[in-house]
């Protein structure tokens, strides 16, 4: 009997066991495709699934923790294994601390109707939960998720750079910004189940916000979904929708002097936007606040310290992103304010983003008063070409 620890886990062996569970179900509902990722905390695999033999196939993701599991072919359950199962159940009954996967499963269930959150996927008569004549897989928990087809935002940035671009158009950036704000709104006001049973756009609620903080919102945990210009949603007319994944580090703690759940999420949104604006990887959340710079709001407004160094002019006035809309620059600098009480509310930011998307079209940026040094990059054809080379003609994603 072999107990696989994080140091000697062999994904291919465990993958063979998972394949056996899906194959031995005998209903031809699953096709086990390949591993997606192997992390310190868990594994993800891509499957094809259909509800019945006459249904069409769809891609889904299986995610499980990197817990000790049995993979040897001659495994026989012993008293030690029975005791382990009893200990696990006792921990659950005692209300023991959640694992990261348990946290993710619970929070994704509460967020399942939010359009900008990865959707949890229900599998009826799950083979992994069935008593099949196979050696136990030893997993305490797992979950199925929707497959999001265009990879991570980090992948997208890499493809944009490979295409020779130095920056993204403001019209794209404003829309991505609103996608990220919708994620923040979802965590604060999870949408209720709609009558039509489909995910819906997230909106600020009239009740106090919840206390969910993602704590791991970066460009590897935000996925680029499908393009759907026929959706009728103006914010997704020229861009694909973004979706947030990986809630294993998320917390639900009430506000305190050094923590505000919604504004902590807003700070993380600012960090993602800084990376999209500069097309450079920069985890501002990990930088010491001593590196913050002063920023003064337009029109002689308030001055505050911000972590938006990468998108602000330096001491010599050199602008790292001269094509960036000054209003968007201000919004992101405000999101990255060191003091959370100085960051704008998500309601304010959402209003700013919506107005910019509706009013600042290609013609607006072509006006001299916009100050845009290259307004041609805001045209629909230019933007469409970006997604042509970075998504539609891009290599198949492996993430």
UniProtKB/TrEMBL annotation:
Question: InterPro entries per the record?
Answer: Kinase-like_dom_sf, Prot_kinase_dom
Query: Which SUPFAM superfamilies does the UniProt entry name for this protein?
Result: Protein kinase-like (PK-like)
Q: Its Gene Ontology molecular function terms?
A: ATP binding; protein kinase activity
Q: Where in the numbering of this chain does the Protein kinase domain appear?
A: 30-399
Q: Which domain of life is it from?
A: Eukaryota
**Per its record, how is this protein called by name?**
Protein kinase domain-containing protein
